[in-house]
Structure formats: structure tokens, C-alpha cells
């Protein structure tokens, strides 16, 4: 392949989300509300168990076609992560094996100590 002088490579550098009081939920809010763990929604530190919760949210969406929690604002979604149970998989996709319901019950546990 011949080099093309019209094409330029711009280096990419990932940066953390800005943390400003002007953000919709106040200072320090970052990340996608649909995939945040309850402890993150509550402003507590994240660890590997938070990642398990987020992966559970993605898996729920893959299996059902929608995230476990939705709402009109990020605050509504975060409230649901803290206080609501997601709609059972069997109601959204009855063809799924019970196994998936059990996997997601563990991954989406509100208490991080119950995730594994």
C-alpha cells in the first residue's frame, strides 16, 4: 500500500469525563446511567463487583432487547438501579432458559457481596 499524503493520523488520547457542577446530576457524575451499579449510583467507589453488575446490564439488554432500567432522565434510571428489580426475563423473552434468569439475578444483585 502506498502512503497517501492527504491522509493524516491524529493521535487519540482518552480523557476522563469533565467533572463540573454544570453536569445534569452535579459534580463528579460520569458514565452511562443504564449500566451503572447501585453503589456507583449512590456515589460509592466501584470495584470488580461493579463491573459484574454492568456486564449483567449488558447481558440483560442482549437477551431482551432493552436495558434493565429505563427512564426519562438519568436520575430516574439511577434510582431504579438502587431500589427496583428489573422486569423478569421470562416476561420479556419467554423462550429463554431459566438458567439466564439465575445468572442475571446474581449479576444484578443490589448488594455487591451477593455478586459472583
Automatic annotation (TrEMBL):
Protein's name according to its UniProt entry: non-specific serine/threonine protein kinase
Compositional bias per record (Low complexity), positions renumbered to this chain: 1-24
Domain of life, per lineage: Bacteria
Region described as Disordered: 1-47
InterPro entries: Kinase-like_dom_sf, Prot_kinase_dom
Annotated organism of origin: Streptosporangium pseudovulgare
Domain Protein kinase residues, every copy: 1-116
Record PANTHER family: MITOGEN-ACTIVATED PROTEIN KINASE KINASE KINASE 20-RELATED, SERINE_THREONINE-PROTEIN KINASE NEKL-3
Xref: Pfam families: Pkinase
Enzyme Commission (EC) number: 2.7.11.1
Keywords in alphabetical order: ATP-binding, Kinase, Nucleotide-binding, Serine/threonine-protein kinase, Transferase
Transmembrane helix among keywords: no
